[in-house]
Amino acid sequence: MGNKAAVFDDELAPYYHFAIDVQEWKGKPCYVFSVKAKTREEGGDPGKVVIDEMVTWFSYQDFQVLARNYSLSYSAGVYDFDVAMEVELSPYKNLMVPTVIRYNGVWKVVTKGREKGVFTATLFDFAD
Questions:
Q1: Is the pLDDT of residue 4 over 90?
Q2: pLDDT number for residue 54
Q3: Tell me, what's the pLDDT at 49?
Q4: How far is residue 128 CA from its own chain's centroid?
């Protein structure tokens, strides 16, 4: 997979659309930054990228990341995957930590059968 997730790299950035918007997330005003892979017709190349789409909600007040949604896929011959994740973050002490993770994905590695995973993890009651 190498550096195919480095969407801001000079080599990969031309394969993506970037956008900034403003919207609410759970009642909080946010900046929304989105990255979306270009289609072949737009000059994209699915073989060069891993991130199909990524959307990040930043707090309007302090730019903390409140949530991020990912859509990832790739096929390398010996393995392939197609995964969607939603991650919500909350403050804990002076950090933002993941408190909800939703995952839905399929993957296959040569010599193994195709596997699928679907789950939601809720993380809470953090301690020192």
A1: no
A2: 97
A3: 92
A4: 28
pLDDT of 47 reads 85
Of 23, 19, 56, 60, nearest in space to 38 by CA: 19
Q: Round to whole Å and give the CA distance between 50 and 1.
A: 8
Q: Which residue in the block uniquely carries the two structure tokens 């002076």?
A: 94
Instruction: Check: CB of residue 82 under 8 Å from CB of residue 51.
Output: no
CA distance 11 to 64: 28
Instruction: Please report the pLDDT score of residue 87 as a whole number.
Output: 98
Tell me the pTM.
0.89
Q: For residue 32, which of 15, 46, 18, 43 has the smallest C-alpha distance?
A: 18
With beta carbons less than 8 A apart as the criterion, state whether 71 and 46 touch: no
Nearest to 55 by CA among 79, 84, 77: 84
- Alpha carbon distance 112, 34 (integer Å): 34
**Residue 113 CB partners (closer than 8 Å, separation 6+):** none
CA distance 25 to 65: 11
pLDDT of residue 1: 56
